[in-house]
Amino acid sequence: MRSADLRTSVVKVGGELLDEQHLVELSSIARDVRRLLDSGRRLVFVHGGGPQTTALQRALGQEPKIVGGRRITDAAALDVLNMVVGGKLNIDLCTALRASGVDALGLNGVSGGAIGCVKRPPRVVTGGGDQPVDFGFVGDVVSVNSALLALLVENGFTPVLACIGGDEQGRAFNINADMVASQLAAKLPAERLLMITGTSGVLRDVKDPSSRIARMTIAEARSAIADESVKGGMIAKLEEAIEAIDRGVAEVQILGKLGDGDLVRAFETPGSIGTIMVP
Fold it and tell me: 75 CB contacts (<8 Å, ≥6 apart)?
């Protein structure tokens, strides 16, 4: 990005925030987004939809398969993800942002080649045992249409990307939203990456919000993964945070349980809420 690059940040919103129980928090986030835009910042959003995809899979008689915090995606699961993440949740997030005066524009990675990917080969993953796992219709990011995103940002729009990528033939693939966000932040490049999740940062004790770790280095994050002091979906978040910093993103923040003004504070005083990860 040209005129936008030094002031553009990537914000990832977890699917757990896109339900009726979190409408107040989502509204607070949207109001803060408007304030950030008014102050001259530019944002690109990425969102997931894991809980909602799992719920619809089960309603349709499918049994979700999650390994190392990542979904194994067969053809039936991909259909559900396209409906839920590429459809309803993308609209819901755009609706919340537009209610606060943000010109949100919903996209998926197939649209305009926004997120280019290739099928992920079988691989050993943290939490998945010692044998390679074939994730099915799951992609790895190989390119970002920076020109498209720059065009939108520079004309006052806030792109909202569903975590679906497309290969050279235009086929859709599920991509972990944390991975999309970290790769997008690295490839734009972005000033910073913020991951908004259902927890108030990285916690020493997942049952105790006061155990929040305000600041982590890459070495500390790797140690937390290795000694299993973090589990489940937080493993993927830390791994993608490490990847983003390794690729040149200056800082990554893992945030959650946000009230009015908290997202602005995360920009103005990094580490005051959530967890900031630095090299």
Answer: 136, 137
